[in-house]
Structures are given as C-alpha cells and as structure tokens.
C-alpha cells in the first residue's frame, strides 16, 4: 500500500526550509509520489497534502504526516518505531465523525509516514487569532459538546488523546469539529535543553508527573474552552492559573452556568473534574451558554450542574433587614464618631454639645455644652472624656456626671480628635500646632509647630508622635515635641496615621494612601485612589483598610500596598472604618452604613440612614455605634 | 589563570577569614561574581552593582542598586538580553532615582523607589523586545535605601535574606515546576530532577506587558542579602549557601566561595551572585 501518493502544499500554512531532510515538492514516496509539498510542521515532523495515485481517475487528497526518528541509538529507534506502530494500529481502528480516517502508515529509512484523511478547514488557533472579537458563545458551546462526544468515544476505546489544544482541533468545511494530530508525534519528541520560556499552557498538572488519563483530556478541553471564551492565551499566563481568571471577568456574554462547567473541568485535582467526558457533555447540554438567555429545555434524569468552588454570581445583597437597636436624635448633625466606655456612648454634635447616652438603650444621660461645634471624636480615659470644640478649647469632663475637670485653650478651632497616651492628651488645632497636655492638670507639656492647621489625630508610640497637617506636611516628633522628620504629601494630610511594624500609614488629599518608614519618613509604598483620601486607616494582620472620596473602601496589602479588593459605595468614604474579626464597618455619604467581609470585600449588610455618614463607626460588644448627618446616633447589631 | 585554578579547585570554600579590618562599618558593603561555570561556553548572565555612601552633616541613607539577570536564547541573544536589561535599568534608575535624590536634598517623594524600579524594568522589557527579539532574560533587582530593600523580580533568579543565620527566599520562581510545587503536584526534590525544570512562564523581553513581582523588605541591622542565578541555587544546597553568606565576613569572598561551590558541584550553568551586607 501507500506506494502512490502525490503531495501538495496546504494553502495558507507555513512552510519550512527543506535542508533538514524533509520531503521536497513532488516527491514520490516509496514508488511513485509526485507533487509533494510541505503543509505544516509540528513537533519532530511535517504534514504534507498529498494525492493518492492509486486512484488515477479521481483526485483523492490525503494528509501525510512525516515523523523523523532522530535518535542515534538503534534500540531507542526500534522502540520508538514499535510505539508508533502500536498507536497507528489503534488509530486505524477508530471510527468517529470527528476523528480523521487513517489509511496507512509505513517507514522509509529514519522516517515514518502516516497517511490519513485530508481535512479542509481551519484549526481553532487560527480561528481565534483571525477573529477580532469573542467567538459567539453558542458556537463555542456547540464545539464543547462535540468535543466531549469525541473524547468520550476515545476514552471508551480506551485511548487518551493527551494533547487537546486549539491547534489540534479543526473546524472543517462543513463546520464540524475534527480532532487532529493524535498523540503519536509525542513519541518522537526529545527532551528540551536550556532554559525555555513559555509553557504548554493547556496540559493538566498531573501530566507533568507522567500521568496521561481521560481526566487530563477533560482539563485540556477546559483550558481550550477557557482560551476561546476569554481570548487569554494560557501559554502567556502562569501555568494552571485558570481559577484566578474567571471567564466572566473577561467575557460577560458567557452564562454563569457555562462558566461553572468549564471551571470544573479545570480543577487541579483530577477527581474534582467531571468523572467522564460524557458527564461533562451532559452538564453542558443542560446549561444555557449565553448570559441572560432562557434556559434550555429541561431534560429528565440528568445530573444537575454543581457549582463547587465557583463564586456564585447571584446578588450578594442580603435579604434580612438591619433594624437599629436604638437611635437617638441630637439637635444637629453628628459628624463626630461615638466612643463607648463604662456603659455609656460619648458623641459630639454640631449643636455645640457633647452627649452622654446609655449604650444599652440610647437613653440620655447628660450633655455638656461648649461655645462651638463638636465635630471631632471624644477620647475616654480614667473616667475623663476629652474632646475639642470649634470654640478653640480642649475640654476634660468627668465621664460619669459631665462636670468639667479642666479646659485648655488653643489659638484656633479644634477639629482634631484627642489622643490620650503616656499621661498626656495630644491634640491638634487650627492654630497650626499639635499640643501635648498633661492629663492630670490640663497644663501644656509642649507644642510642636506644623505648617498648617492640624486636623489629623496624632498616633503616639513609645518613641514618636506622628501627625499630619493641612499644608501636606506629615511630622514625626520625639516625645518632647522635637521634629525628627517631615514627609511632604502634595495635598493636606487630614487622615489620622496608624503605625504598624515600623511603618506609618495615612491618606492624603493628593489621592494617595502612603506607607512611610516610621524611623526615617522614607516612602515604603503608596497607593493611588481615584479621589482625595480623608479617611483614616485600620489594619489586621494582612491588610490596611481605608476609604476614599472616590467612594471605595480599599483593602491594601500591608507589605506592598497592592489592592486586594475594593468595595464601591455611591458616596464618599470619609470616616475611619471599624474592624471586628473578619467584618469591616464604615459609613458613606450615600447615607449608608456598610458591613463587608474583609476576606473578599463582599457585602455583609448595609443600613440606610437619612443623611450622609461621615462619622466613624465604633464597635462595642457586638454593637456598631455611628452618627449620621440626619442628626441621629444609631446602635446597630454588628 | 591562577584565579581560575583557584576557582575550580576543591579547596574548602569558606576558610575562616583572617583579617584585621574592622567589620563594624556603618555603610553597606557588597561583593559580586559572574562565572561561566564548567559546562557552558559562554556566560549569559549579567550582574550590576552600584552603591552610594555619604558621610556628611546630612547623613543621607546609603543607596544601592543590584541586578542579576540570566539571559536565554541562542546565538548570543541570551547575553545580549541580560546585559541590555542591566544597563537600561541602571541608566533609568540613575536618572529617575539616584540623581533626584542627590539634587533634592535627600527628599525623594515624587515616586517610591518601587515604582521607579518597576518603570525601569518596563523600559528594559521594551528595549529587549525591540533590540533582541529572540532573547529574553530573568531579572532580580534590589534597590536599597537605608534599611529598606525594594525588590522586583521576573523569572527564576532569586533573592534571599539572611538574618540570624537563617535564610529566607524573598522571590518566587516564575517556573512551571514552582507552580507544580505550589499546587502540591511535585515535591521540591522531584522538581529539581524534573525534565521541565527549566521552563519559565515569565521573562523580560517576551511580552509587551510584563507582570512584575515587587516587594518591600525591611532589612534588620547586619542582615545580608543574596541575589543569584539558578546556576547557584539549583546546584549548591541551601544549607551551604546559608552558611557561606552568614559566616564569611567579606562579601566578595562570600561570592567567590559560592561560585567555587557551584563549580565543585559540576558548574552546569553560569553562576552569578551578589552578596550585600547591611551595616550592623
């Protein structure tokens, strides 16, 4: 057999130079084989289009695959040839519309030839590269079903294809799916030498342990579908990173259910994939491939599509309403952030008063009246409440009865919140100073001159005091108020700093969140948000959480400043978030108080007030206390 | 020749350093080596080091830039890619980080060093894509300012931090086998023998957009940093590397000792190492 095959070039496919001993055009293989042209090149061999001369009256086109048996070791060459023959025999016995027919094989010197059906069409790699946009999802879905069908047929032989990828899948002239380049060529490949760039992209993890199984073909089919649907070539991505790149992040035309099927095929562990290509086919036939379209007609007795390990795409908005435990109405807007101590809530108000409420029921205990608005948050220490007022004074008031202990006058309004540490109250003033005042008697220990009004709340460590000012300068002083370093942001630093492991974190109206070395003021990282950052940060062991006027709450990696997630609100986030376990609480000027999960930024609940929320929530024993510009203080179940 | 013989001989790699020089210096010190090894004919690695130390009233922190690049691609493409990458990064960092630091009276707050370093690497990526289209290179770069190291990394060269006689790897290889280890499909021992152990999925000069791993590391006093190509870490056991870096008091001698160990282990690949000592 196979004495008379005439070869021609496949149109439009790349041709290699013939100096490596491959066939020249018009070669007659064995006996007569004129008009032989190279049509493709893969692995260690070439593919030719040829004409079978045994049928002189018709032009019967065949594909001739040539493989070079390059090993110099005769026993390896013999083994390679035997493997090839064995696989060729398996192939010749196959009968499926998607499998090309094998007519013959033979070897000549160090080359072996496989004569098979010539398929006119394009392979999927060519189709992906020549299509400027996404390929229609319905079409990809149909290919997926057909590929499952042929893989199931092969697996039942049993035969593992081992190399499912776009370039090995042809769409023929009748638009049918055909598998080409069966694993045979692999037996002729040698190991690679030297560092290589680029991976095979579609192969399952276990294939690198030498395991070739039907589950591996299912993974590679999943990888192929992922590539077609996302247009992201897996050979250019970290290997096995499909789970990090959900299909719908790239192509929202794809339905959630179709994505779930493909992603299950891509599970790392073979046993987590579909147990067979037939099962995957069934699952595919059950889904509507296009997002938002009507579901396919229901079939009976078919297993349901599972969604293990896949993010659900339904709405995360909870159904349960958050009902306040209590709310208390002040005379004016509440911008101040509440503080809870000794069973009482202390909160300032634009009505010039500081309120003391019963934390459990919101009943009124007392109110201390000043001559200016109390916009900042109080601090409670040792039965004394400290708070600043726009009337220029810092007040120390008995936390139980609201009687004055002492007052300290600054030269400007006080919008900063006091910090109590090391026997001192630290507070900034519009008079461009930060004051350290002895808690015992209200006398000034020192003051540090800034370059603009100080609205930021100081952070105090055992060695340093950190605070920002409205000129954009950020200062570190020693405990005597001597400035040790100064950091310049481009706009005001109203945000209150936080120190964690030798790094100071704060936001600026220049839109950035900064992480600077607490020792030197040198920038460790910075992160740019979409608007000014007035909000102050909180942290857990992994992330920094801070809001921006761009409406987002950001979770930033403490070490690198990379954003892990962001949560978008409809307004600005001005206050400091509060953290309890894996729940984060914050208000937005859209009027809501939000609770989101710190692990993924998903909404836990939200509560609507009747005014913007610029106050920072305070957590105490499972209750969130927060003020709103609707004049109320709210107590919500965390 | 004497140097080569010394390098290739199997003398104890790290004889106790006998020196009268005080090591209690206030500035960072470094050593570097790039050796062809014993099998390859050419050295496709590139290595760059630059240090600025100032002693003045202002007392600006030390600045250092260190680069290890392991080129790949035949017909001199590998060494061209690695060399070009090191030069472009050094040039960019001089213009956009070091000179501004000098002229701005110690203040350099427009960009962070991490951002500048990443921009420098993007410039190098574009230069390699443009001028050495058939080459590519790994890259591990560290910019040090005071006690902070800004690391950026692509490929399978590595950075290690040695502190208190323990060594921690600061970079993650962008290699197929590393991914398989992370997915628990291979053990590190299997990976070391795997036929695909030299397959990278990310390198400088391969794609228009380059994904960079960057990190900022606080360097404790007397800490030591090692940057090296796989010609060192894939040949010399980690315990030996740790011991040499932790105990050899002169960073240049440490580099020589590391290269000796790699050559004693067959020297199958080019060997490049930079050892940096932080002031104690």
Textual characterization of the structure:
The complex is a heterodimer of chains A (638) and B (280). With 638 residues, chain A is mainly beta. Among the domains of chain A are: 5-117, Phosphorylase Kinase, domain 1; 122-187 and 203-286, Transferase(Phosphotransferase) domain 1 (Transferase(Phosphotransferase), domain 1, Orthogonal Bundle). Helix content of chain A is 13%, strand content 33%. Chain A is built from six helices and 42 strands. In chain A, strands 1, 2, 3, 4, 5 and 6 form a six-stranded antiparallel beta sheet that branches. In chain B, the strands form two sheets. In chain B, strands 2, 3, 4, 5, 6 and 10 form a six-stranded antiparallel beta sheet that branches. Chain B has a five-stranded antiparallel beta sheet with strand order 1-12-11-7-8. In chain B, a hairpin with a 2-residue loop joins strand 7 (158-163) and strand 8 (166-169). In chain B, 52% of the residues are buried. Chain A binds chain B through residues 191-192, 194-199, 205-206, 208-209, 236-241, 268, 487-489, 501-502, 517, 519-520, 522-526, 559-560, and chain B through 61, 70, 72, 74, 107, 109, 112-115, 136, 145-148, 156, 174, 176-177, 179-180, 183, 185-186, 190, 194-196, 198-203, 206-207, 214-216, 218, 230.
Shape call of chain A: elongated
Q: Alpha-carbon distance between the termini of chain B?
A: 36 Å
Mean pLDDT of chain B: 87
User: What is the fourth-level CATH superfamily of the domain at 122-187 and 203-286 in chain A?
Assistant: Transferase(Phosphotransferase) domain 1
Could you state the CATH homologous superfamily of chain B? PPM-type phosphatase domain
Summed up, the domain count of chain B is: 1
Mean pLDDT of chain A: 84
Q: Looking at the chains present, what oligomeric state does this protein adopt?
A: heterodimer
CATH 2nd-level architecture of the domain at 122-187 and 203-286 in chain A: Orthogonal Bundle
Name the shape of chain B in a single word: globular
Q: Tell me roughly what share of residues is in helical segments of chain A.
A: 10-25%
